[in-house]
Structures are given as structure tokens and as C-alpha cells.
Amino acid sequence: MNNTTVVEQKPQFAIKSGLQQFLVFGSLILLVIFFSIASDNFFNFSNIIGILLSTAVIGVLALGSTFVIITGGIDLSVGTVMTLSAVMTGVFITIWGLPVPVGIVGGLLTGALCGFISGFSIARLGIPPFIATLAMMMIAKGLALVISEAKPIYFTDNEVFMEISLGSVLGDLIPGFDIPNAVLIFFIVAIFGSILLSKTIVGRYNFAIGSNEEATRLSGINVRNWKIVIYTVTGVFTGIAGILMASRLNTAHPSLGAGYELEAIAAVIIGGTSLSGGKGTILGTVIGALIMSVLTNGLRIMSVPQEWQTVVVGFVILLAVYADILRRRKS
């Protein structure tokens, strides 16, 4: 392939990626319009803030999952690792009485360690990502129950920790602009993730591994080590989600995170990241997470039973995966 062909393909890929994100964003707008018409209680400030607040945790999990899925892998452990990170944060702050910043660092390191172990199992031991992360999911779930003695850990009267999610720095600066800190953190993390994916060597190797792992290896890149790095990065994002969740609820519940990994993966796929690897954007994932939250919130406001909400979300995931299959066929 000559240089002219490469130059021609890059604009084409950018145009296709931009069109895809526009369609996903258009779907989000249509959902908002539909639920606004269906219920007068949907499009008001308090409900929109509630949607953004619920998006924060799933969104951060989805941002981390984006890195792994772009490599062509999967991480089924993000939900329970999030729970374990929250529990360890509770242990550091509540049980051991350490300062809040130390507890936060402990929660982040817990997520990073779990991601490192998953990455090591996949890259060095040759265990398939599905099996390795499924095992980590069970390990994290068990450890969370053992460490917490199967009881919630409450951050009693710890207003500093609660302020991480429910406080409003913007509200203090701009009266009436009471957007929770968790939402602000989510968008800051998204910006950081976008820079990491598009402007750094981690992102370049991430796409290279997902596009053609064997060619990347033959070009002299240590694919094994970079896979470990990528899964560790996902673990850090998961730790952030655990801290946000614990701060929002003012408790670390050891059995809370089950099922969150499916919603995170669904948000990534809806946002246009390919399950086969090599394609994906942080912006698409952010929009995908918002679509999941708007859909869940809208169905709840319309008094759709919980079981039917699950059915609808399942159909949305099927449609997103089928759309990914069609994109791969066309490419």
C-alpha cells in the first residue's frame, strides 16, 4: 500500500467515524424528545441532574472498558472490582481511620492491582480475556464479601467524602448551577481518557493491537507488556467509579456492583466501539453511557415495570451488537 492510499484512507475513516458519532448523538436526542413528550416529569432540571449523576458511575466504568475493547479484549470484572475498590476505600477511611486522600489512593490502587492481575493472566499466562476477567470477577466479589464481613461499610458523618460525589464546586462558584461533583469528575475523566487514547503512545499501541496484534508484535512492540498496561489503566478507571459510587451512597456495599459490567460494555458498544477491536472513541462511549441512562430513567418515569426495563435494555444491546456486525461487514 503506497502513501497516497494511506492518506486517502485516513480522511475516509475520520468521515465514517464522525458520521457514526453523529448518528449515535442523534439517537440520544430522539430519546430525550420522546420521553419529554411522553412525560412532563422527564425534562426538568432535577431529573436531568439525576440522569447525569447516574451516568457518572456507569460512564467511568465504560470509559475504562473502552480501552480493553479496542484491543479486541473484554473485561467482565469491572463491576465487582468497582465494588472491591469501594470496600477497600471504606476499610482505609472508616475502619483504619486514615485520611480521606489516603483512602482514595487505596481505592485507586485496588482497582489498578486487579487490572494488572487480569492483564498479566491474559498476556503472560495466555488465558483468554473472557475466562481471565470472569475469574477476576468472582475473586473480587468474594474478597469484597470477606473483607467487609458481608456487611455494608458506612462513611459515618464523613462529609468530606460525601462531597466527592454529591457536593458542587460549580454551585459554590456559580449560584444556582448546582451540578454534582460526580458529573464534573466524569467529564474530566472523559477528557483525560480522550487525550490518553488519541494523543499518547498508550492510545496508539491500543489501536495497533486491536487492529492487527500479530503485525504489531512483528513490528517490534512488546504486545504482552502493553496489554498489561491497558488492563491496569482500565483498573484505575474502575477504582474511580468505585469511589464515586461509595461517595454517592455514603456506603460501600459488598454486593452492589453485580451487573454493572454489562451496562458498561453496552454503553461502549452503543457508542460505536467495535467488539472486534481497532475502532472506538471516548466521545462515542460518553454518548453511549448517556443513552443508557436516559433510556433507564425514561422507562422508570413512564412507570414501566423493572423486568420490562431489563427486556428493553437487552434489545438495545442486541441492536448495538448487530449494528457493529454490519459495520464490520461493510468495512
Task: Write the topology of this structure.
Blueprint: H1 3-38, H2 45-70, H3 78-95, H4 100-123, H5 129-148, E1 153-154, H6 159-166, H7 169-173, H8 181-199, H9 201-211, H10 213-218, H11 223-249, E2 251-252, H12 260-270, H13 282-301, H14 306-330
Antiparallel strand pairs: 1-2
Care to describe what's here?
The longest helix is centred in the first third of the chain and has 36 residues, at 3-38. The protein has 331 residues and is an all-alpha fold. The chain has helices at residues 3-38, 45-70, 78-95, 100-123, 129-148, 159-166, 169-173, 181-199, 201-211, 213-218, 223-249, 260-270, 282-301, 306-330; strands at residues 153-154, 251-252. It has a domain at 44-258. Helix 2 packs antiparallel against helix 11 and helix 3 runs parallel beside helix 5 (129-148). It has a two-stranded antiparallel sheet with strand order 1-2. Helices cover 77% and strands 1% of the residues. The chain is globular, with a radius of gyration of 20 Å. The protein has 14 helices and 2 strands.
